């Protein structure tokens, strides 16, 4: 009986597609950080992985940098195009970021609120001096600067 190579190939392709979808949904698809993004954005906060927001949010944020959450974060036109294009290509898709969160804030997105609910993260944690606010990912996620947010890398400050 002659075996076709199609079935194993189809299964391998399906497995690869599932892994890619799972990474996109988990926010764990680590994209190499654009040096210009790291330089410009991480000067004030961590360089949030682009998969944490949908393309529409990144487009809005990049179009309103002169009023970026109370700060003028304006960029020259070349940097704006380079960073904006990179964010659009690597923006979140799939279940995690199916819609733009209120005010384009990661901390107001449905997936963030689900992962950081009061049972998982008691409200007093956000008030601790070492944490400060929900947007300070690196306070608890020890590998946040590298774009890794695994539960095994969480250490909540006392």
Rg from Cα? 18 Å
Residue-averaged pLDDT? 84
Order of helices and strands: HHHHHH
* Structural classification: mainly alpha
Proportion of residues in β-strands: under 5%
**Alpha-carbon distance between the two ends:** 66 Å
- The name of the CATH architecture of the domain at 31-97 is Orthogonal Bundle
- Can you tell me the CATH class of the domain at 31-97? Mainly Alpha
If helices are DSSP runs of H or I spanning 4 or more residues, what is the number of helices?
6
Number of strands: 0
Contiguous low-pLDDT stretches (5 residues minimum) are 8-27
Shape: globular
Q: Look up the CATH topology of the domain at 31-97.
A: Cytochrome Bc1 Complex, Chain D, domain 2
Helix content: 25-40%
Largest sheet: none
Would you kindly provide a written description of the structure presented here, covering whatever features stand out?
With 158 residues, the chain is mainly alpha-helical. Among the domains are: 31-97, Orthogonal Bundle (Cytochrome Bc1 Complex, Chain D, domain 2); 116-158, no CATH class. Helices cover 39% and strands 0% of the residues. Helix 3 (55-63) runs antiparallel to helix 4 (77-90). The chain starts with 5 loop residues before the first helix and ends in a 31-residue tail after the last helix. Residues 8-27 have low confidence and may be disordered.
